[in-house]
Amino acid sequence: MGVRFGSRRGISEVISAVIMTAVVLATGCSVWFYARSAATVMTDDYVDESMALKEEILERFTVERVFYDSGEGELDVWISNYGTVETTVAIYVTPSEGEVVSDLDNLVGAESLNVVGVPCTFPSGTALSIKVHSLRGNNAYYTYTIP
Questions:
Q1: pLDDT digits (tens, 9 = 90+) for 21-65
Q2: Torsion of CA 42, 44, 46, 52, to 10 degrees
Q3: pTM, to two decimals
Q4: DSSP H stretches of helix in 75-144
């Protein structure tokens, strides 16, 4: 009789262990890549939000002066940007009686003083409430009475 080699059970167990190890490694690698990409996306979003908040904090402006030129029919608003970032502002003029007048998309450079003319006509003695609103959400207020 020839030598009989035992059953192939030993080889079968080794192959199944190798396959299971490969499956576990593949699953672990896919989970690791997914977690890494998710962390990268969250980090990028956090950095973008932080930079936007930083610019909002660095944005500083105020209304220095207001003058109404009845001959031109224009309200001149002096906006002083004493911050380190340029800003885009909208000006809303609300009279004590009548409709709101607005002038949108006015660029004010960093550390500069701009005069923005808002075309409007108001009678003498009209009290005006002026709101300057930036795209980043900051506001400056001023009250003025037409002489």
A1: 999 999 999 999 999 999 999 999 999 989 888 888 889 999 999
A2: -150
A3: 0.69
A4: none
